[in-house]
Amino acid sequence: AKGKGNAVFDNPFDRSNSLRCYSSEDSCDFDVDASQTEAIMAARAPEPWSEPETTKEYSETFYKEKEAGRFRPNAFWASAAMNAASAEPRGPLLSPDFVYATNCVTEAAAALALMELPFRAGEHSILPGQGLAASFVAESPCVLVAKEIVAVPAPAGDSARDLLVTVRVFKAKDNEDTSQDPRSIKEFLVNEPYCLQIVVTNVSPKTLGCQVLVQVPEGSLPLGRATYTHAYPQHLSAFACCRIAVHFYFPRPGTFAGAPVCCSVDGAVVATSGGVSYQVVQEPSHVEVKSFSDVLASGEAAVLTFLRERDVVGGEMGFSFPQLYPLLSNGAFFSQAVAVLRDRGLFDRTAWGYGFLHGDVPACHELLQVEGRVLQTLGPFFESALVSVSAAEADFRHLDYHPIINKRAHGLGEGGAAPPILNAQLQATYGRFLHCLAAKPGPLGVEERLRLAYYLLCQDRVKEAAAQFRAAGAAGTSGGLKLQHDYMAAYLDLFDASGGLATARRVASEHKECPHAAWRARFEALAKILAEIDFATDYAADGVADVAAAVQEAPALHAELRPGGVFEIQADGLAEIQVRLYRVDLEMLFSRTPFLRGSGAQPDFSFVKPVFEGSIPGDAKTWELPEGHRQSDLAVELTAGALRVFTMYFACTLRVAVAEQHGYLTVTSADRRPMPAVYVKVFARVNGQEQFFKDGYTDLRGRFDYASLSSESAASVQRFALLVLSPGAGGLVREAAAPGGY
User: Fold this and answer.
1) What residues are paired with 347 via a beta bridge?
2) Cα 481 to Cα 463: distance, rounded to the nearest angstrom
C-alpha cells in the first residue's frame, strides 16, 4: 500500500540503539564488573536483531481514490454549488441529497466536510404528539432520516393478462431514450424517418409462444427491412420481454390511422396496444426541442444557450461533443463556444484542437498544457508563447525511500566513482530528478538543493549532500520546508562531531513535542542517539571499563595469540616447529579469504618471501613475536613436518565488540572512547559460498550495523566475516554468527 509521503530524511541508525554485547567465543583483556554490566543492560533494554523491512517508496498521493470518474456530479454537488453561489450569508450545507455523494471515500469525506456536522451531536429530544405524531427538537445540526407507510389506491383495470404490449415512437436520428407514446405526439413531419418501437412483456410465470402483428401507419412507407404488415413469432420465457423496431416515414401531410399492435396465442388475441391517429404536417407549427439534434437545427444561438445552461457533462438531451465539431470550423462560433465552456470549467481536447485552425493562442496554450506526450517531448523548464513546462508538470514527483541500507560504501574500480544504486526505483527517480536539474536554467533553488541532498544521502554520499545543504542556506527554514530542513541539519550534524553536535541537540530539543506523530518519532530517535553518544563518552571518561569494549581474538586450530604479541603453542610429540612471518595487505587478504578463523581456510604464501624465518623447540608453550615486526599486519605460519597452521597478527589498537544477537559491532579506542568513521567490510557465508555483503563506516557512537541490508536478506546467511580498518589505529578481522537465530 502506498504511504502518505512523510518518510523524509529517515535516520538509518534508529533501529540499532541497543547496548553492545559479546560473542560467546570472545575474550577480554580487562575486567568488567558484573553488577555494572547488569545495571547497564537493564537500563538500555536491547532488543534482538530483526530482519529490516523491505524498502518502500513513499509518495504524496494527495487524495485517496482520486480518479475523476469516481467523483461524479450529482444532486448533492448541485445543492452545494447553489449554496456557494447564494448571495445570502451561507450557513452549514444541510442537503437531503448527501446520500448521493458516496461513490468513494474522498467524495464522502468532502461531503461531510461541507455539511459541517459537529463531531459530537447535541442532546436532541423527541416529543410525543397526538396519535402517532411526534416532534423532533434538534440541539445541533443533524441529518434526520424518516420512513412512513401510507395507503395508495389499487390499480384500475384487468391486471390478470399474461402479455402486455407497449408502443413508442421516436425520430430515427435520435436516441431511443427520446421515445414517446405516439398518442402524446401532436405532429409528425413529412419525410422524417421514424422508428416504431414495440415491447411485449410476459408477466406470467410460464413460457409463452405468441405472434405479434405489426402494421406501419396508413399513409406511410416502410424503411429498411420493414414491410407494410408483418407477423413476428416470439417465444417468451417467464417474466421476459422482447423488442421489435419498425422504421417508416410519411411522404405527404394528412391525418392517418395507425392500426393497433396485436398479440395472439393459439389464434386468439390476448393483448393489443390500441389504435393511434397520426397528424402529419409539412412544417412544424412550433419547434419542440426533444434532443440535441433539435437544438442543432435551431441555430448557433440555441447551441450556445444549450452549452451555457444545460448539463453538458451528463449528456442531457443526448449531447456529445462530436456533434458539436462541425460547427467549430466557424471561427466566430468557435471563440464563443470555447468561451462558454471555459467559463463553466469544461474542456474537450478535440474541441480545443480547433484553436490551431483559427490561430487562437489561449486555446492552443490550454490544450498543450494537458498533453502529456507533448510535455514529455519538450522536457522540463520549457518556455514559449504556446506552452510552458515546470518541473512539476514534467511528471517529476518527489519520492522517499525507507529504509535504505546500502551494500557498498565505495564504487568499484579506480577514479573515485560513486557506488552503484542497487534499488531500481531509487535509481529511476534519481535519474529523472537529475534530468530535470540539467534542463533547469539558472542556479538551483532551495527546494531543489534539499531534494538533491536527500537523494545523495540515500546513496550514503554524505559529504556531497552536506555541500548541497550548505548551498541551500538558511532560506530552507522558511515556508513549508522548515521541519525537513531542521531534521536534515541534525542528521548531517551526526557525521561531524567537531561542533559538539550543537545543531543536532538544538533541533532535538526544539521539535521534541512536534504534533506530527511520525516526525515526532524521528526527533525522539535523534534524541536517543545523542543520549547514547553522551553515555559512551562519559562512561569512558570516568575510567569505568566499557562493557562494549571487549576485544577477543578468534581461536586458531593449534596456536592462539595472546595480548602482547605472545603465541600459545599447542604441540605434542614434535621436536621442532618452523615459524615464518608474512607481511600482508589486510584488506586484500580479507577480500580474497574472508573466513580464516575456524574454517580450515589457509591462504597460499608459497610464492611470497617471508619477512622472518625461525624455529622453536617442539615442547615450547609460548613464543613471542619479534619486536621489529609488531607494527605490521602479519600472517603467522607454523609448520612441523606435514602439519601446517596459520594464524593472524593484527598491529591494531582498536577494541571491537560484536553484538551477535543484535547484528552490530562497536569500535572503541585504547582508552575506550567510541571511534567514528572506522571502515568496516562485511562478507557472508551463504549456502557454503563466501560473498561480499556490504561495507560502510561506524557512526559517532562507534557503531556499525553489519547484518541489515535493504537489497538482500540475512535469513540465508550462516556466518559473517568482519574487517575493521582504521588508518591510524590499524585493523583486525572478526567472525560472527548470523543474528536473530539464523
Assistant:
1) none
2) 21
3-class secondary-structure state, position 101: coil
Q: Which residues pair with 272 in a beta bridge?
A: 262
Strand duo 163-171 + 194-202: pairing? antiparallel
Model confidence pLDDT, tens digit, residues 644-696: 777 788 888 889 999 888 889 999 988 888 999 999 999 999 888 889 999 99
Distance between CA atoms of residues 240 and 238, nearest Å: 5
Say if CB 611 and CB 582 are below 8 A apart: yes
d(CA 610, CA 451): 54
Task: Check for a shared fold between 163-281 and 559-649.
Answer: yes
Handedness of CA 631, 634, 636, 637 (dihedral sign): negative
H/E stretch holding 35: helix 34-44
- Number of residues assigned to the chain: 742
- Kindly give the pairing relationship between strand 664-668 and strand 703-705: antiparallel
Which residue has cell 541500507?
405
SS3 at position 660: coil
The CATH number that domain 559-649 falls under is 2.60.40
Q: How far out from the chain centre does Cα 661 lie? A: 33
Domain boundary assignment for the chain = 68-147, 163-281, 292-388, 559-649
526 touches 520 (CB < 8 A): no
Integer CA distances (angstroms), 312 to 105, 298, 305, 348, 352, in order: 26, 17, 11, 11, 16
Q: Where are the alpha helices (DSSP H) in 69-208?
A: 75-85, 105-115
Q: What is the pLDDT of residues 44-97, one digit of tens each?
A: 445 666 777 888 888 876 666 556 666 778 889 888 888 887 777 667 787 888
Question: Would you give the DSSP letter of residue 424?
Answer: H
86-123: pLDDT as tens digits: 777 667 787 888 888 888 888 888 888 888 788 888 89
Cis-peptide into 205, omega within 30 deg: no
Contact by Cβ (8 Å): 220, 252: no
Name which of 197, 196, 252 is nearest 220 in CA terms: 252
**Residues 6 or more apart whose Cβ sits within 8 Å of residue 117:** 92, 141, 142, 143
Output the CATH code of domain 163-281.
2.60.40.10
Residue at 133: amino acid letter: A
- Cell output for 602: 589457509
Contact 65, 105 (CB under 8 A): yes
Cell output for 613: 624465518
Residue 677 near residue 698, CB atoms below 8 Å:
yes
